[in-house]
Structure formats: structure tokens, C-alpha cells
Design a protein that fits this description.
Helix content: 25-40%
Largest sheet: 5 strands, antiparallel
Shape: elongated
Number of helices: 17
Strand content: 15-25%
Distance between the termini: 114 Å
Number of strands: 16
């Protein structure tokens, strides 16, 4: 029986293992999601090639990109709210930089090639003076380069769908921008993950600078309990003690063993016992290390995922649902509702109506009557994935029903998918719609444009309404012969 079981201390599943599972799930979702289609639409696709946006398996045209700001607001507010609640948990658990570093360092270098001796020591770099280590390093870089190309391709699948992506690969000379983009992403990932490493998190990523503004005393983070463990650093981050003997001379009741397992395991090379530091990414590996060491002594970990309010200030339990967090949650809910509402009211065809420069055409007929024509330029786009037939109808104001008719086009016309078609539409009246002797009369009308379903009837889904005007000449012109 292990010492931990003898002393009744149960060591929970390490956070590192939980992170591995989460990374695996996120990676699978990122790779599989671009391949999933519902009614021919992707979950997310921003196609500059076809000028389309797919969101939640609904297709939008580029003219409907007013939805993108809402997506960006949800993204940033989500990350900021996550930071207020759980510190840099995004960095340690979601960020691709951290995920890729774990794949390269823990999986490729440590588990597969044994280039690193153990996962628990991230401070000691492999001895590259040994020839066999140089070979292993080259193999590790080659493996990662291949994975980086796959990651670059996967990134592109959210802008060029896989069904088009692999067609384009068959003619690389015609799609050098796409090829160059993938190579550029892969080259950056190789440099970033193999050579820049966690320096990206420390010096390049702006998020670490933003977090200090978002934190408060209830923000949950990896935190060292100096009340139990003892004070290792002073307020200026100068180290006070270097071993357990020196620590006990200052504080005989201090429980820290000064084993520094929490230091050697840290991927960003910090000592969590200094307190809050910008470099901490909340990966919680220091929590795992201290939990294991203190568990063998029959004591709880000195490094926990908690808040300053609870551990340092000892004022009580951490308040998770505080006004700031509730505010972020409320904003996210409101923006999501607005986004869902706007997305659900999208139009399934695009139609712009412009009146011709000539206000109207007036013709006097032999029987003493007249004919007034108004012409319009309709620019219509079929946003569906199949050819559709379209037609229009005009809805005049109340009391003028049936007095304004469409004389051109005379029958439905076909439009191919993603094709813009220009149509000259002529509306006509032979009725006396107004009797103003001084000026032309502007009559408001509505244009109903719709597609025909398989039965040749107007589609309820592919249907839009537009406001326009019909200009009727003044009475003095109607009397001219």
C-alpha cells in the first residue's frame, strides 16, 4: 500500500491529465468540424473565394457580414469574462500555442523520442552535445513540421472548405496564394513551437498585459498559500530562503519542503511562490507537483487553484458569481440573442432595386387614354446551392390594387447559384392614380420578389420585400395630345 493510502490522502487525477483529454477533444473538434455540413452549409466558413459566410450551418452573403462584429464581441467578451473568473485559464487550456507546445514537448520529445527525461522537469533542456540527441531533435522537428502543415491546412479549411481545398491542391500553380499561406503558417508554427517556445506567451502575446487589468481579489488562479508554506520571497520578489533549514529558522511552522517541484515543472519558468506573475498561464502543473509532494506527507497541497481573497487574505470563500462576472454573462447572453435573432431573419436571396434615371414614360393612346411606365434595374443574386426560378409582384397602396402591373419580365427566369443577375423591370398603369395639376405624384409601392418551389408556387422561405416608388405624371401632361 502506498504512503498516500496509508495516511488517508487521496491524490486526485492531475490537472495535466485533464488538460491532455481536453486538448484531444479540442483538436478532434477543430479537425472534424470543417468536414461537417448540414444542407450544404458549414458550421463556420468565411469564404473570400465565394464571398460567403457560413455560421451555425446557415449561409450568409458577404453583404450580411454585419454579423461578424457580434461574433468578435462574443469572442473577446468570452475571453475577458473567462479571465475575470479563472485568470489565464484560456492560455493554459484553450490557446493553440499551449496545445502545440504540449504536443511537441510532452508527446514528441518526451514520450515518443525520449529526448527529455521526464515531463515533470521542464527547466532542463536536452543535452544537444550528444550526437543521438541531435538526431532525435531533427526527427522531432520533422514530425512537428508535418503536423504544422496539417494545422495550417486545418486553419485554411475555415476559409476554403475541404471539398474545394483538395480540388485546388490538384492545380497548385493556380492557387499559389493558398499554398503560400499554408507554408507560411507551418513555418511560423515550427519557429514558434520549436525555437520561440513559451517566450511567445511571455514577450509576444498581449493577453498577459491585459489580464492584470481584469483580475480582482476573487479571480481564481494557481496560488501559493504562504500562511501554511511560509514566506519564500519578500514583497520585491527577492528570495529570502534557499532550503528548508533556512525557512524553518524564519518560520518553524512552515510546511514548504523547498523541493521546488513546482518550479521545475513550470513551462514558463516561474516560481509560483513569488505570487501573481504575468507569465503564469494557469496550466496548474505546479498544483499537480505540490499535490503529489504534500500528499506523500499526508498534507494538502500548498499550491491550489483558488483566489487571493480565500488563500492570501483569508476573508472567506471565493465569490464566483459577483457583479463583474454576472455583467459579462449578461452581455454575452444579450449579444447571443441579438445575433440569433438577426441570423434567423436573414434573407435567402439578395435584391437591390434602383430606379432608372428617367422618372417615367408617358404614351397617349389613340382612344384618348394613356399609358405610364416606370422602369427599374433589379440586381438579384441566388444565394442557394441550386438553380432557382424567380419572379416579382407589385403591391400598390390601399385603393390602388390591380392598377399597377408588371409588364416586363412576363414570366419567371432562372438564376444559377451564387450568380448575380441584372433585370430590367417595367411597371405600368393605364389608370388615373392622381390628379395633381402642378407636379408629379410619388406613389409608395412594395416589390415582392420570390423564388418558385418545385410545384411552381411562390416559396415562403425564399421571399423578400422591398420598398420603392412609382412616379405618376402631373395632370397637365396627361391632357396633352
Amino acid at each position: 500500500m502506498s504512503e498516500e493510502k496509508k495516511k488517508g490522502i487521496k491524490i486526485p487525477t492531475p490537472w495535466r491529465i485533464k488538460r491532455y483529454y481536453f486538448y484531444a477533444i479540442v483538436t478532434i473538434v477543430a479537425l472534424v468540424l470543417p468536414w461537417i455540413k448540414v444542407n450544404g452549409n458549414h458550421f463556420f466558413l468565411l469564404s473570400f473565394d465565394k464571398m460567403k459566410l457560413h455560421l451555425a450551418f446557415v449561409q450568409f452573403d458577404m453583404q450580411e457580414l454585419y454579423l461578424m462584429p457580434f461574433l468578435l464581441m462574443i469572442l473577446f467578451l468570452g475571453i475577458f469574462g473567462m479571465t475575470v473568473l479563472g485568470g489565464r485559464v484560456f492560455c493554459g487550456w484553450v490557446c493553440p500555442q499551449t496545445t502545440f507546445r504540449v504536443i511537441f514537448r510532452d508527446l514528441i520529445e518526451t514520450k515518443l523520442l525520449k529526448l527529455r527525461k521526464r515531463i515533470g522537469n521542464k527547466q532542463q533542456e536536452p543535452d544537444m552535445s550528444k550526437p543521438e540527441n541531435k538526431v532525435k531533435k531533427a526527427i522531432a522537428i520533422a514530425i512537428w513540421a508535418l503536423l504544422a502543415v496539417i494545422a495550417g491546412a486545418d486553419f485554411m479549411w475555415y476559409f476554403i472548405p475541404p471539398e474545394d481545398f483538395f480540388k485546388y491542391l490538384q492545380n497548385p500553380s493556380e492557387h499559389m496564394v493558398m499554398i503560400g499561406f499554408i507554408i507560411g503558417v507551418a513555418a511560423f508554427l515550427v519557429y514558434d513551437i520549436v525555437f520561440l517556445k513559451e517566450n511567445f506567451c511571455i514577450y509576444v502575446c498581449p493577453y498577459s498585459r491585459v489580464q492584470s487589468v481584469l483580475y480582482d481579489e476573487h479571480t481564481v488562479m494557481a496560488i501559493y498559500d504562504e500562511h501554511r508554506g511560509g514566506k519564500i520571497y519578500d514583497e520585491d520578489h527577492h528570495k529570502l530562503v534557499h532550503n528548508q533549514k533556512e525557512l524553518h529558522e524564519i518560520d518553524p511552522d512552515a510546511e514548504c519542503t523547498t523541493c521546488e517541484k513546482c518550479v521545475t515543472v513550470c513551462p514558463t519558468h516561474i516560481d509560483i511562490r513569488k505570487g501573481l506573475q504575468l507569465e503564469c498561464i494557469n496550466c496548474l502543473e505546479c498544483v499537480d507537483a505540490c499535490t503529489t509532494v504534500m500528499g506523500k506527507l499526508g498534507k494538502p497541497s500548498l499550491v491550489t487553484w483558488s483566489s487571493e481573497y480565500e488563500i492570501i487574505e483569508r476573508k472567506g470563500k471565493t465569490k464566483y458569481f459577483r457583479p463583474k462576472v454576472i455583467g459579462y454573462m449578461a452581455l454575452l447572453v444579450i449579444i447571443s440573442i441579438v445575433l440569433g435573432y438577426m441570423g434567423s431573419h436573414k434573407e435567402h436571396m439578395l435584391l437591390n432595386i434602383n430606379k432608372e434615371a428617367r422618372l417615367y414614360s408617358l404614351k397617349h393612346l389613340p382612344d384618348g387614354k394613356f399609358r405610364v411606365d416606370n422602369s427599374y434595374i433589379f440586381l438579384l443574386q441566388n444565394t442557394q446551392n441550386e438553380p432557382m426560378k424567380y419572379y416579382f409582384e407589385v403591391v400598390p397602396p390601399k385603393g390602388m390594387e390591380g392598377k399597377i402591373t408588371i409588364v416586363k419580365p412576363t414570366k419567371p427566369f432562372k438564376v444559377l447559384p451564387n450568380v448575380k443577375k441584372k433585370k430590367i423591370v417595367t411597371l405600368r398603369t393605364t389608370e388615373m392614380l392622381a390628379n395633381n395639376p402642378r407636379k408629379d405624384t410619388i406613389i409608395p409601392i412594395k416589390i415582392h420578389a420570390y423564388a418558385l418551389d418545385k410545384n411552381g408556387k411562390p416559396s415562403e422561405k425564399i421571399s423578400v420585400w422591398r420598398d420603392s416608388t412609382f412616379v405618376f405624371p402631373k395632370a397637365t401632361l396627361l391632357k396633352q395630345q
